[in-house]
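Whiteboard transcription, Tuesday session. T.W. wrote the structure tokens on the left side:
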């Protein structure tokens, strides 16, 4: 995005505009419309630049409303400035409304889109994003007023929401920035235990469960006696002679059954999955 340089000494500030008399505001609105007509009907780029200079303080003011911890104000001003440019290009001078009434929602929409698409590490519903920003902003204001952090109930009363909505907004704020699992858990140490170290270790039981399920599926290709011979050999750890006595066959026959059964299991495991 091309950066738009602020010109604090040009035009009027937002505060001066609010303190202006009705006559001054009317004259300003008339000049705004004259510049808009020059730009849209005559294609005068100088008129567009003058409009940007006149309304850039408004864009800065709106950007500050959406500033939160870790978010650079300069970046938000650029987003708001882009919204201002879109408002200038899209406004129809034939409209009866003032340009500022069209510019404000256009700039705010650009800021909200920025937070929705680029700011949040985890996708959060847009209305919850907006409430999270509002709760953070009001929380900062109340902290300055009260000299302490406001309670969730106080925030709910000030923002006109419920306690549950405030708590949900605060929880959503935790999804704004992602933290690497390799980052040290202590802020004072560059090295040390990472967040990943706090998670559980690999459980070998999952692998054993998968192997057991696979063996159970493969065993279906064997008959009942073959399955019993393998169970006695590998589950109960009996010798071939002991197995022969159990099932009533010779040791040589047990040996042959084991070799044949294992070969069939191997072939079944190597066979392509018909369901795939």
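and on the right, the sequence the group agreed on:
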């Amino acid at each position: 995005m091309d950066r738009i340089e602020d010109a604090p000494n040009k035009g009027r500030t937002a505060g001066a505009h609010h303190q202006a008399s009705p006559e001054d505001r009317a004259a300003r609105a008339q000049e705004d419309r004259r510049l808009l007509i020059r730009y849209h009907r005559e294609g005068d780029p100088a008129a567009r630049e003058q409009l940007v200079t006149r309304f850039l303080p408004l864009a800065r003011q709106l950007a500050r409303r959406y500033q939160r911890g870790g978010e650079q104000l300069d970046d938000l001003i650029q987003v708001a400035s882009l919204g201002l440019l879109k408002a200038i290009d899209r406004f129809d001078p034939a409209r009866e409304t003032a340009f500022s009434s069209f510019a404000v929602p256009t700039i705010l929409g650009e800021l909200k889109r920025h937070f929705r698409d680029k700011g949040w590490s985890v996708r959060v519903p847009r209305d919850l994003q907006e409430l999270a920003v509002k709760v953070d902003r009001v929380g900062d204001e109340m902290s300055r007023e009260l000299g302490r952090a406001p309670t969730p109930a106080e925030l709910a009363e000030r923002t006109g929401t419920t306690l549950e909505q405030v708590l949900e907004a605060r929880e959503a704020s935790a999804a704004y920035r992602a933290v690497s699992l390799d980052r040290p858990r202590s802020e004072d140490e560059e090295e040390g235990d990472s967040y990943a170290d706090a998670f559980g270790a690999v459980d070998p039981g999952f692998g054993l469960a998968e192997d057991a399920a696979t063996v159970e599926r493969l065993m279906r290709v064997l008959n009942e006696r073959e399955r019993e011979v393998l169970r006695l050999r590998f589950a109960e750890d009996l010798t071939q002679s002991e197995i022969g006595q159990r099932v009533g066959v010779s040791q040589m026959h047990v040996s042959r059954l084991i070799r044949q059964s294992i070969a069939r299991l191997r072939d079944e495991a190597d066979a392509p999955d018909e369901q795939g």
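Someone added at the bottom: DSSP finds twelve helices and no strands in the chain.
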